[in-house]
Amino acid sequence: QALAVYDLGGGTFDSVVLRKSADGSFAPVGIPVGIDNLGGADFDDAVFRHVLRSSGVAEADLNDADPDIRLALAQLRRECVEAKEALSFDSDVTVPVLLPSGATSVRLTRQEFEEMIDGSIERTIDTLEDGLDSAGLEPEALESILLIGGSSRIPLVAERLSERLDRPIAIDA
Questions:
Q1: Contact by Cβ (8 Å): 104, 56
Q2: What is the pTM for the complete model shown?
Q3: Which of 8, 31, 39 is nearest to 130 (CA)?
C-alpha cells in the first residue's frame, strides 16, 4: 500500500510517496520532491495585487515611506489573506480597501481566485507526479493522497488532484 503526501503550506510545496509496511510503519519510496518558493503566501500576494489593481488605487498613492500608508497596506494584506481563506468556503468575498486617499471595496469570486492560482496548483501536481515517477509507481498504486498544510484546503487542490490522478483524497485534521 502506498500513500502520497501533498503538503502545500505557507511558503513551500513538498510531497513524498510512502509505503506502508506489515508492521504499520511508513517508509519513503523514491525521492521526496517539492517547490521551494511556492505556497499560500504566493496566493496571498496574488489576491493583494488583484485587489490593488481592481480598486483603481494609483501607484502614486502608495508611498510606503508614509506610516499611514504602510499601516493601511498591512491591514489590506490581512484582509486579502482572510479573503483567500474565506474563498475555501464561500463563492465570493468583498475586500475592503481603506487607504488614506479613500475607501472602496473589491469583490473577488472563487472562480477569479482559482484562475489566479491554477497554474501554481498544476505545478504542484506535476511535481507530485515526478515523485511518483521516482518511486516507480503509477497513480493507481496509491491508496490515497493525504493533503497537509493550510493551502491544501483550497477546494481547487482536491479538484485538480482528483481530475489528474483519480485517487481518493484524505485531508489531515
A1: yes
A2: 0.93
A3: 31
For 114-122, the CB contacts below 8 A with 24+ separation are 114/156, 116/43, 116/46, 116/47, 116/50, 117/42, 117/43, 117/46, 117/154, 117/156, 118/156, 118/160, 120/38, 120/42, 120/43, 121/154, 121/156, 121/157, 121/160, 122/160
109, 149 contact by CB (below 8 A) = no
Cell of 144: 490515497
**Cβ contacts of residue 31 below 8 Å, gap of 6+?**
131, 134, 135
Say whether pLDDT at 173 is over 70.
no
Q: What are the pLDDT digits (tens) for 125-167?
A: 999 999 999 999 999 999 999 999 999 999 999 999 999 999 9
